[in-house]
């Protein structure tokens, strides 16, 4: 319900959290996660953008690229999300994936500049699914990329933005599940 409320604030991201969850679960199944781990990952995915509740509509719904100050504010959604989840002890296990889903394998991500294996596995998986869904969705400032193009972008960012072994798994999943056919341009 909370994920739907977040997505509803921005018509361009409607259904985003659910799609990120579905994509992430494909990766995790291929990695052999247990049913319990899959359940926890699914919930973490649904919460991954919860911090956007605190992002002003003027930024969230801006019809164009963000300026540097707006971008800095948007980046805070990871910290805001972790803070929101910290208010309920039952949600503490989702804090790390929510806080770190924008970290980068090379250490240039945010909010803490984690790198490589220091990034929690759930966060690394969510990052790939989140990026793929964002690239294949139309936004006010750009059209959706075809799924094949997005997959090539992910492959090109392996070892920089994304953990290489997870990119390999996602590309295998994409081929096995025929994601390019499922992700028609602009439909996600």
Task: Give short descriptive properties of this protein.
188 residues; mainly alpha
Brief description of this entry?
56% of the residues lie in helices and 0% in strands.
Account of the 3D structure:
Helix 2 (16-31) packs antiparallel against helix 3 (35-47), helix 2 crosses helix 8 and helix 8 (121-135) packs across helix 9 (147-156). This protein is 56% helix and 0% strand. The mean pLDDT is 91. With 188 residues, the chain is mostly helical. It contains 11 helices and no strands.
Helix percent band: 55-70%
- According to DSSP, the number of beta strands is 0
Strand content: under 5%
Unreliable parts: none
Structural class: mainly alpha
Largest sheet: none
User: How big is the Rg?
Assistant: 15 Å
**How far is the first residue's CA from the last residue's CA?**
20 Å
Oligomer: single chain
Give the SSE string. HHHHHHHHHHH
DSSP summary: helix tally:
11
Helix-strand layout with pairing:
Blueprint: H1 2-9, H2 16-31, H3 35-47, H4 57-60, H5 68-75, H6 77-85, H7 95-100, H8 121-135, H9 147-156, H10 164-176, H11 179-182
Helix pairs in contact: 2-3, 2-8, 2-10, 8-9
